[in-house]
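Cross-posting from the modeling subforum.

Setting up a comparison between two proteins and wanted a second pair of eyes on the formatting. Protein 1 (sequence, then structure tokens):
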Amino acid sequence: MEYNTQRSPLRLSEYGRNVQQMVDALPAIEDRKKRTEQAEAIVNVMLRLQPKIKELEDYQRKLWDHLHVMADYSLDVDSPYPVPKREEIEKEPERVPYGTHTQHSNHYGAIIMDMIATIAREPEGPEREQKVLACANQMKRAYLKWNKNSVDDELIARDLEQYSGGVLKLPEGVSLSATLPQSSEGKKQNAGNRQNNPNTRKRRTKRKR
């Protein structure tokens, strides 16, 4: 049995141990074409695990950068983007405006931190305000996954402001949601379920009498 203390640390915990093991196995594939195809498959898995990354500009490049980070910058494949330099990736937290991370940034994860940095660079306006609200809601959901208890919206607002270097602020009086909004199809399905429910039909029959 392999214990957690015996395992190498995850380079990007957002993608989990299984993806890291898939990346670690890439160098063993001798055929370069097959190795590249497997790398592309891993990138697709990463996207399914972190769909919110699509909100970032050039998110495909960001995924490939993350792949190279998990491969310790030694991956030899036909990447659609230049291999990032270690010094550029490692100095990035000092360059982007969200400032020094606190203990909370660990459970927000790199994806949300990248999202904050990207939104902070966008011009002010209604579109950015919508993205700020969506990002804050995602931060709250990530926080509640880490801490099952409730979280104050003010804490999320403070973290958002801190990690954006004071650029991003939630409007006063805004209430954040910890759950995804229900789609219109989901609402229709629930309405259909209520109509087909025998108890609902019985109650309607009684009212007609």
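Protein 2 (same layout):
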Amino acid sequence: CAHGSLEDPKSVTHHKLIHAASERVLNDAKTILEENIQDQDVLLLVKKRAPTPPPTMADVSAEEKKKQDQKAPDRDAIFRATANLPSHNMDRAEVQTNIRDFQTELRKILVSLIEVAQKLLALNPDAVELFKKANAMLDEEEDGRVDEAALRQLTEMGFPESRAAKALRLNHMSVPQAMEWLIEHAEDPTIDAPLPGQASPGGAQAEAAPEAATEAAGTSTGDEEPRDELTEIFKKIRRKREFRADARAVVSLMEMGFDEKEVIDALRVNNNQQNAACEWLLGDRKPSPEELDKGIDPDSPLFQAILDNPVVQLGLTNPKTLLAFEDMLENPLNSTQWMNDPETGPVMLQISRIFQTLNRT
């Protein structure tokens, strides 16, 4: 038979027979009787698809080169490429800078106000009881604050409600991170164990109370020493929350070519907002992560105006205000909740008004 014809054995292996009525591929090793082929049946001879050849080293190298070519440019490369271009939309850029400055200044204000509130509470003769109350309120808030919509999403996926609530508390009410936590700890024997604050709602308070009383009792000499001791007590009962970067945002930004550490820093500075983090990475990268924990200049007109406000002064003596500042410092997305709170909302409103007034002047 001629090479390349249908009778050529090398060509036959590259074709297959299909029974048209049943759309069934016939087995080459079986006979017509075994395949139950009848007279007048229609058979189709179809060419088989050639298998995809494995990639060669040249293809792999080309793919790597393509990835390098598509990698996001760094700041120096952007400056070199745009050095000769004229500037546009200067007013718009100025507005964006003002917004970013407001977020930066607000964080600095909270850091400094926390220090002032600690000192004011330390001057109160019932300071120890106030700190115990603050600790109990923190436990109560932590136990009761579960986003119902987020909880419903997880339970609809099939997760038990108790586990879903625990995962949400541990992951700042983030549904994607809570889901990842539930999957990772599905086989953990302690997954159903309640959180420390839940196991005994008064446990943290009871634990802090003797310590607070002991600390206060041993510092009855002098005026400054009790304040320092009470400040230390507050630091011990204060629950600092570790920053958790949004997993999807991390992956998206790393796919643009940025290093993981840079991405996490950007998300921390910009409160897990992916677009703002991307602008930070491509811009001057200010504020830096190190600046997040610095307070505002105590002698600045802005801070003095805030401290002179009667509503703020009254709020700083309330332990709940102190807890609100701490929560917003670590979880900026919770600011809306505290703005709507009848005790902390007026304080936050006054701070916002003072900032906007001085920012315009």
